[in-house]
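stage 2 :: seqdesign
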């Protein structure tokens, strides 16, 4: 049974984990170099966890882990390259220890012009497909009964995603491309994935939840905004939360005993929240899973790479 949860929009990652001893825990965090990913890694490590910090390059991950301390292990994981994702998963597996949590945090947003890789729009590939592939390859390492997966989504999954949810016939953006719509689609896909993964792992007692971290300074997600939206953002940043607050909900879900046993929910401000109406569409979630498996298989056939564990 979950304990009461007194935290909210002003809570920080350090506050939600205050007094929680994470000694002996091993937690994977993607996008560890800055913003809420870095603050999540920092808060987990400060409470005794060993964090495997993933970034696009080993150099960037190493620098971030060095800034946190010796309880962090860096690893390269370019989420746009599924062969690199497979190498990262194999490297984590080769460390020979179970995982207590995976925080799928990394992301890109609002690319001004259409970018694709092997026929998949880049926001969908990085924000969703890359994490789908990585997490699925690591779930066998999660501890039964206590393992956790945290998938970072966004309120854009409600406000920006297409009405039908996932544009299965336009995943390459060939018919049309709108940056905000494709970002919202990728974040809805992430939340749908969390729902379906929760169902699939329920028998093992593993909790899977999705998160809206809130509008946060320093995430680099808005660096591509131009024109009027950029001006609006400049003003809005005055009211945005800092990265320590932005990291609070995912830190809570990754490691706090207060939320033990809660799974399949969409969270915001450290509380269960109302997500997209499409999160109740089990058929859509299953179809997305099946299509995603085909995308991963096709991408790996298109650009295979030998799996080698770094020395």
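stage 2 :: out
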């Amino acid at each position: 049974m979950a304990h009461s949860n007194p935290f909210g929009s002003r809570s920080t990652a350090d506050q939600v984990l205050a007094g929680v001893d994470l000694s002996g825990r091993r937690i994977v965090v993607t996008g560890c170099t800055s913003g809420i990913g870095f603050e999540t890694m920092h808060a987990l490590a400060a409470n005794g966890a060993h964090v495997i910090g993933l970034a696009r390059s080993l150099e960037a991950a190493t620098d971030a882990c060095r800034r946190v301390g010796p309880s962090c292990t860096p690893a390269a994981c370019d989420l746009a390259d599924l062969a690199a994702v497979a190498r990262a998963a194999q490297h984590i597996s080769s460390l020979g220890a179970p995982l207590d949590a995976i925080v799928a945090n990394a992301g890109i947003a609002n690319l001004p012009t259409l970018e694709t890789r092997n026929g998949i729009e880049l926001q969908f590939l990085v924000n969703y497909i890359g994490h789908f592939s990585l997490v699925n390859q690591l779930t066998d390492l999660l501890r039964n009964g206590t393992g956790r997966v945290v998938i970072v989504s966004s309120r854009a999954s409600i406000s920006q995603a297409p009405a039908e949810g996932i544009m299965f016939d336009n995943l390459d953006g060939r018919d049309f491309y709108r940056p905000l719509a494709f970002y919202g689609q990728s974040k809805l896909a992430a939340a749908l994935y969390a729902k379906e993964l929760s169902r699939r792992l329920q028998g093992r007692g593993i909790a899977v939840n999705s998160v809206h971290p809130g509008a946060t300074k320093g995430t680099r997600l808005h660096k591509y905004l131009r024109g009027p939206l950029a001006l609006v953002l400049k003003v809005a940043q005055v009211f945005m939360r800092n990265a320590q607050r932005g990291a609070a909900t995912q830190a809570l879900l990754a490691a706090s005993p207060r939320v033990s046993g809660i799974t399949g929910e969409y969270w915001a401000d450290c509380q269960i929240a109302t997500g997209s109406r499409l999160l109740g569409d089990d058929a859509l979630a299953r179809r997305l899973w099946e299509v995603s498996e085909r995308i991963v298989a096709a991408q790996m056939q298109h650009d295979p790479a030998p799996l080698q564990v770094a020395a």
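stage 3 :: structure notes
- The longest helix spans residues 179-201.
- The domain at 22-302 is CATH 3.40.50.720 (Rossmann fold).
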